[in-house]
Amino acid sequence: MTDALAAASTTTFDGPRVRVQRRTTSSIVALILSVVVLVAVASMPLWASQGLIRDIVRLCCYIAIAQMWNMLAGYAGIVSVGQQAFVGVAAYMMFIIAQLWGVDPFVAVVLAMIAPALLAIPTYGLLHRLDGPYFAIGTWVIAEVMRLATSNFGYVNAGAGMSLRVMTGYSATERAVGISLLAALMLLVTVGGSYWLLRSRYGLALIAMRDNPIAAASQGVNVSRLRFLIWVAAAVGTGLAGAIYFMAQLRITPPSAYDPNWANIAIFIVMVGGLGSLEGVIIGALIYFFADRWFGQYGATYLVVLGLLTLFMALFARGGIWGLICKVVDAPWFPTRRTLVEERQ
Amino acid sequence: MSSTLLSTQGLVARYGDFQALYGIDFEISEGEVVALIGANGAGKSTLLKSIMGLLRVAPEMVRLDGRPVGGSKPNRMVSDGVAIVPEGRRLFTGMSVVDNLRVAIDHAAVPRGTAWTLDRVFELFPILREKQAVPVQSLSGGQQQMVAIGRALLNQPRLLLCDEISLGLAPKVVKEIYRAIPSISANGTAIILVEQDVGLARSASNRLYCMLEGRVSLTGRSQDISREVIGAAYFGGAHAVA
Amino acid sequence: MQWLDGLVQGVLLGGLYAQYALGMALMFGVMRIVNITHGDLMILLALTGISLAATFALGPWTVLMVLVALGAILGLLLQRLILNRVVGADPLPSLIATFGLSVALQNAMLQVWSADTRSLGGGDIAQASFQLGTLYVGVLPVIVLATATLLTGGLDATLRYTRFGRSLRAASADVEAAAMTGVNPKGVYAGATAVAVAILGFAAVFQSMRATVAPADGPFQLIYAFEAVIIGGMGSIWGAFLGAMVLGISQSIGFRIDPGFGILAGHLVFLLILALRPQGLLGKD
C-alpha cells in the first residue's frame, strides 16, 4: 500500500513523497493495554475470586455481543433486534453436544459454533429481501421462532430447559481456568478479529460501505457479499458469547437463552458508547456493566432510564459517548483511519 | 413589464462543503419570461432550487414582492405563488394523471388573473384529457412533462420555474411543449426557463442570464445579444478570446 | 368440523390483527419508518382504557371513543417529538429511537400497572354468541371483524379520494416533489402517525375485551402486525387486511394441531411466504 502510493506519487507528479500512517501514540498504548487485559482475563484464576471471575466473564460476553452488533449496524448497515437467536441456538447446541453427546464441554463450545452459522445463512437468504427497517423486525421473528421451536422440542427437554451436569466432572478450579481461557479467546476473536478485519483490505471497503453503500458498490465493493459475510461472522461471534455465558450459568431455558434483553444490551452498549467504533463498544460495555450492578436493583425504573438514554442518543448524539470524546480529543485507541504523512527528504 | 416580482441579491448556495453559487443577482418582473442558460454544472438548477427553498439560503438573499423569503420551505413558496416544473419531472408514481394534478389543486395558491383549471390544462395539452385515468409512469416522456407542467400550473403560480423541460424529449414534442409558454405568460405569470438549448432559450424569452461556474457571466435582452457574445459567456474567458 | 371451526375462528382473529397492521402499513408506506413502539402503544392505550373504565365506570364504547382520540394525540406527540427528527433514508436512527422508547415504555407500564394481565369487561356482548350451521360464533369477534373491514375500507377510500389521502400518496411517492407541489411533509407525517395510532385505539379496546393485556405484550403485537403487512404485500392497505386473515387462520389452525404450535405456525407461514413470494400476496413485482 505504502509503496504503491509512493510510487504513484513519484511517477505522476513531482509532489512530496508521502507514506500511509495509521499508528498513533494512543494506539500503541492501547495495544499494549489490550495485551495486558487479554493476559489478565486468561489468568483470572490466579488472581480473582470466583465471584469476580463470573462478573468479568459476563462483561466479556457483553463486549463480544455488542461488538458483533456494532459490526452489523456500524459497518454493514444491518440493524438486527434479534441477535438473541444466535445466543440461544449456540448455547443450546453446546448443551446438546456436551450433555447429550458426551463431548468435552470446552470442545463443545467451539463445535457448537456451527449452529449459529447454519442458522445465519438461510436467515439472511430470507430476510435480505426486506426493506431496511423490516429486516430488523424479521430478525425478531427468527428469534421468536427459535424460542417457540425450542420450547416445543422434547429432545432438549422443551420448556423446562437443561442443566450442564457434565461440568461436575471438573473441579471448581479447572472450570475457572477453562472459562477464563475461553473468555480471553472470545475477546481475541470478536474484538481483535474486528480490528484485524477493519485494518485489512476489507476494512477500507467496510468503511466505504458504512459511509455510502451505493458509492462503495460503484467503486467495486461487493456490498451484498460483504454484508452476508459479516452477518454470518457476527452470528458466530454472538453465538460464542452465548455458549460461554450459559456454560458459566450451567443451566439454560428457552426464555433465558432467547431473551430479547440480549439485543437490548447490545443496542444500548453500542448506541451509548458509540456506533461504528471499537472504543465506543468498550466504553458502552463498561457503563452498562456498572450501571447494571449499581442500579439493577431498581428493576423497571432502571430499564426505563436505559431505554430513554438509547432514545436520546439516537436523536441527539448518534456517535455516542466516544463520538463526543472524539470532538474534544483525537486520540484513537484502535485507529482504522489511514493518514497520509509527508516524508521529509 | 411592471414591478419586480422576484429578485436575488448576492445569493450564495452550497452543497455541504461545495459552494455552487457565488453571489447571484437576478430579477424577474411580473409576466416576464427569463431564460437561464449555461453549461452543465454552471449553477442553473441550483439557482432554481435556492429560490424554491430546497437549499438553505439566508432570508434576505431571495425576495418575493420585496419580502425576504430565502430559505422558506418549498410548500410555503408554493402558497406564496411560486411553482416549479422540476428537473426529471418528479411525478407521483403510482398515481393517475388526474390525481397528480389534483395534488396541485389541493395545495394551490390564491390565483391572480384567470385561474388554471383541469379543463384549461387539458386544452393546453389535449392528450392529457384522454390519459387522465392512466397511472403516470405508463405515459411517454413528453406526456409526463406535460403532466409536470400542468401540475405546476394548477398550483396557480405568479412565478413558474421550469427546469430543463426539453431534456430528453424528441424535437417535435419539445416544440409542442414550448408552444404552451406564450399562453402561460399571457396569464400574467412570470416564467424562468432553465434551458440547455440556447436557440430555444433565446427565442422563447424576453431576457436571458448566462451562468458560468456559479456566477452570472452575461445578462440582457434576448434579442439584443448576439450568438458570439453568448458563446463567450457560455464557455468562459479562454474561449471568448479565441 | 374442527378445521372449519379453525378457519372461521382464524378469520375472526385476523380481524383483530388487521387493526394492528393497518397503522403499520400506513406509516411505513408514507415515512419508510417502522415504529417499534407500535405494539406498546396499543398496550398503553388498552391499560389506560381498562383503568378509565374501572375508575369512572365507563362502558366499552365510551372507552373506545376516548382511546381513539387519545391515540391520535399520542400519534401527534410521537411524530412531533421523535419521528420528525429521524425520518430519512437511513433506517437506523428511527429503529433505534423507537426501540429505546419501546423498552422505556414497557418498563414504565410495568411500574404503573404491574405485570398482571388485565381485561376490559364487555358486558353481555363479550359472552354472546350465535349458531351458524353447526358452529358457534361469538358476537364480539364478528363485531371486531366488521370494524376491521370498515376501517380498512375507510382508510383505503381516504387514501384514494380525499385531499389528505392524495397528499399522503404523493409524499410516499416522492416527498421532495410533494413539497414542491405545496404539500407540507411534516403535516402529512403527523396526520399519518395520528391516524395509525388512533386505529390502535380500536385494537386496544377489542384486544382487552376479547382477551387480556399485560405490559410486556407489545412486541408480540408488533410482530403480528409486521407479519400481516409482509404477507399481504408492502404498501397495500387491503394487503395488510388479507395478510392479517392469513396470519389469523395459520395461528388458529396451528393451535388446533397442537396448542404449543399455534403462534409458531403463524411465524412459519410468514417465513414460507417470504421464501416463495417475497413481494407478498397482493404486492407487485
TrEMBL record, chain A:
Q: Which CDD domains does the entry link to? A: TM_PBP1_LivM_like
Task: Report a single Gene Ontology molecular function.
Answer: branched-chain amino acid transmembrane transporter activity
Give its localization.
Cell membrane
Q: Which residues form the signal peptide?
A: none
Does the keyword Magnesium feature in the UniProt annotation?
no
Coiled-coil intervals in this record? none
Q: Its topology with respect to the membrane?
A: Multi-pass membrane protein
Q: Which UniProt keywords apply?
A: Cell membrane, Membrane, Transmembrane, Transmembrane helix
TM ranges: 28-50, 56-78, 85-101, 107-127, 134-156, 176-198, 228-250, 262-290, 302-325
Q: What is this protein called?
A: Branched-chain amino acid ABC transporter permease
Q: Which organism is it from?
A: Mesorhizobium zhangyense
UniProtKB/TrEMBL annotation, chain B:
From the UniProt record, which GO molecular function terms apply? ATP binding; ATP hydrolysis activity; branched-chain amino acid transmembrane transporter activity
What lineage is on file?
Bacteria, Pseudomonadati, Pseudomonadota, Alphaproteobacteria, Hyphomicrobiales
**Single biological process term from Gene Ontology:** L-amino acid transport
Keywords (alphabetical) are: Amino-acid transport, ATP-binding, Nucleotide-binding, Transport
Q: Which SUPFAM superfamilies match?
A: P-loop containing nucleoside triphosphate hydrolases (SSF52540)
Q: Does the record's keyword annotation contain ATP-binding? A: yes
| The protein's name in its UniProt record | ABC transporter ATP-binding protein
| Residues in the signal sequence | none
Q: Which residues form a coiled coil?
A: none
Xref: InterPro entries: AAA+_ATPase (IPR003593), ABC_transporter-like_ATP-bd (IPR003439), ABC_transporter-like_CS (IPR017871), BCAA_Transport_ATP-bd_LivF (IPR052156), P-loop_NTPase (IPR027417)
Q: Which family does it belong to?
A: Belongs to the ABC transporter superfamily.
Q: Gene3D superfamilies per the record?
A: P-loop containing nucleotide triphosphate hydrolases (3.40.50.300)
Q: Where is the ABC transporter domain?
A: 6-238
Q: Which PROSITE patterns match?
A: ABC_TRANSPORTER_1 (PS00211), ABC_TRANSPORTER_2 (PS50893)
Automatic annotation (TrEMBL), chain C:
* Classification via Pfam families: BPD_transp_2
Q: Which GO terms describe its molecular function?
A: transmembrane transporter activity
Transmembrane regions listed in the UniProt entry: 6-29, 41-58, 64-83, 95-115, 135-159, 188-209, 221-247, 259-276
Chief localisation class: membrane
* GO CC terms of this entry: plasma membrane
The highest taxon in the source lineage is Bacteria
Give compartment(s). Cell membrane
Which GO terms fall under biological process for this protein? amino acid transport
UniProt membrane topology term: Multi-pass membrane protein
State the InterPro entries in the record.
ABC_transp_permease, BCAA_transport_permease
User: Which family does this protein fall into?
Assistant: Belongs to the binding-protein-dependent transport system permease family. LivHM subfamily.
What PANTHER family does UniProt report for this protein, alphabetically?
A: AMINO ACID ABC TRANSPORTER PERMEASE PROTEIN, BRANCHED-CHAIN AMINO ACID TRANSPORT SYSTEM PERMEASE PROTEIN LIVH
Entry protein name: Branched-chain amino acid ABC transporter permease
Source taxonomy lineage? Bacteria, Pseudomonadati, Pseudomonadota, Alphaproteobacteria, Hyphomicrobiales
